[in-house]
Amino acid sequence: NIIPSDEWFINGTNVSLQAQANTDYSFSHWSGSGTGSSNPYSVRMNTPKNIIANYQSTGGDVVLVRFPTGLKATSGSKIDIPILILTDVTGMGIISYKLILNYNSNVLNATGVNTTGTMTESWQAAEVNTTASGQIQVAGYGTSELTGTGTLVKIVFDVIGSHGTQSNLEISKLIFNSGSPSADVQIGIFTVEEDKPDISGYVYYYGSTEPVPYVNMAIIGGGSSEMTKIDGSYQFINLTPGANYLITPTISRFNHLKPNCIHASDASLAAKASFGMSQLNSNQQKAADVDRNGTVQMYDAALILYYAVVGPPLSTDSYVGEWEFDPSNRSYSNLTSNKTNQNYEAIVLGDVNADWPSPPLLTKGDGNFISLGEPVQVQPGGDFSLKLPINTSQQILTAFVRINYDPTIVSLNRVSKTSQCQNFILYEKEENGSLVCGLLTDKPKIISDGLLEFYFTAKEKEESTTLDILDFSINGEAAQNFRQIISIGNKFNIIESFTLFQNYPNPFNTNTTISYTLPKPSNVSIQIFDIKGRQVKLLFNGFQKEGFHSIDWDSRDAQKNLVGSGIYIYQLSVENVIVNRKLILSK
């Protein structure tokens, strides 16, 4: 009842509304432009009013149907809005429903329904009618009764309104079965929220597409720091529109450094760059400038070589092992839209080669050695030395070498630079039978008398062992691995089987030497084959005593004709054992 009874009122008129319920129903509350449950309800008419009287059943079961609170989504997105059943409907026999939902068509556009994960998921596909603007009609039925509480159905909407606009969600009709149980519904409210921008990207290692995980991405302006994932990605989501942000990537010094990613060849590159012998790109220059003075100098090369040989601790002006990033940070002013592909390049200071993704492996000494000649004979307790060989006509700027030996058989006394290398800086480190040495000079020169000499003392027992020269490099270019046999006293049986060394030099132009050892007197055959397995020449076939042996090949065949350049196989046969190795003839 409306008192006074009319549809049009003079501005300022007080109107009284009286709600009267039919049989089996009672008044519940006012909604729309009205609030509360006072009955009658007084309203002052100064604008058009849309006031709804809500009733609830008193003669049977009543199902409370509601919308979630805080319904929000950004313009241009999709949203599934659930219609919730809050009353336990077990035993009410609900096997069908029909509803009409009204909404603001300037804010939302209903496109269908979604029953996944709802109480009606097992029912037949719902019938949907979206013909009328601002309205969706849905009907559903099934053979299994609804039980418990949950989501009846989810209405799928496109969000088309602008930021801040709202739409009432008003179920004007909801019938279960043929009318029983009754439904107690309330209006829901949907709000178009402001689009919250994201910032995302990747961190790669410089000069590659190798992702760098575990980078701390610190953000200033709001939000929490992120850590890059295993694929190098990061993402800051739901940032405040219009705010200012600063993102800075960091990794603590020495963290996530792969073994041997900073080595002598990096020092060599830095040294060459300081002399103008090679050009570095901008990020390589950052990696080489390890004292951070803005230029690449020999001092940077020395700091890198020191780390490669000795490792930390370093001098106070060395930043080897620090991480830098390009760019160092990214800033965003008045952020209003998503920022994607905000990528960074990571740089380890000292890694001038940029091989952090796949650093070179240290040689394990698999037998692919060049012999240094006849075994060194020494008495128990006696001293002996080994000179680091050199076979190059280029000026030497840097050199690196690792020597492995058995500390239970021989002991290292000292390392000495040869007379031609007195102006070189020498770094050395010995640990558990492994000696690492690095050489560096600011006056490159040609060396003909070896680089270093190593002085050892044999232990007080007759034994045999080897000194293995590994990871030998000159100016960053790898040389071959060498082996020197040491015989203490009368002991020579250093191995249980024979050893075939790599020929030297290799590749070679005309002549090369093939060396091998025999643990006992044996019948020996040495042959050369081409790559197709055809014999080129038989170098030796006969009986030899135990010990060290070598033989030369002058690159001629059995008819004494010079053979062409290419890959050949040299084969050593001892008793019933055969070993093959490759050699390269390059003219």
Features:
Immunoglobulin-like; 5% helix; 42 strands; 6-stranded mixed β-sheet; 8-stranded mixed β-sheet; mainly beta; elongated; 587 residues; 5 domains
Descriptive report:
This protein is mainly β and 587 residues long. It has five domains: 2-57; 62-193, Immunoglobulin-like (Sandwich), CATH 2.60.40.680; 196-358, no CATH class; 362-492, Sandwich (Immunoglobulin-like); 495-587, Immunoglobulin-like, CATH 2.60.40. The strands form ten sheets. Strands 25, 26, 28, 30, 31, 33, 34 and 35 form an eight-stranded mixed beta sheet that branches. Strand 30 (425-431) and strand 31 (434-445) form a beta hairpin. Helix 1 runs antiparallel to helix 3 (298-309). It starts with a strand and ends with a strand.
Brief write-up:
The chain is mainly β.
Average of the residue pLDDT scores: 90
Helical content, roughly? under 10%
Give the distance, in angstroms, between the N- and C-terminal Cα atoms: 114 Å
Major sheet attributes: 8 strands, mixed
Q: Helix count?
A: 3
Q: How many independent structural domains? A: 5
Number of strands: 42
- Beta content: 35-45%
Structural class: mainly beta
Low-confidence stretches: none
Whole-number radius of gyration?
A: 43 Å
Query: What would you call the shape?
Result: elongated
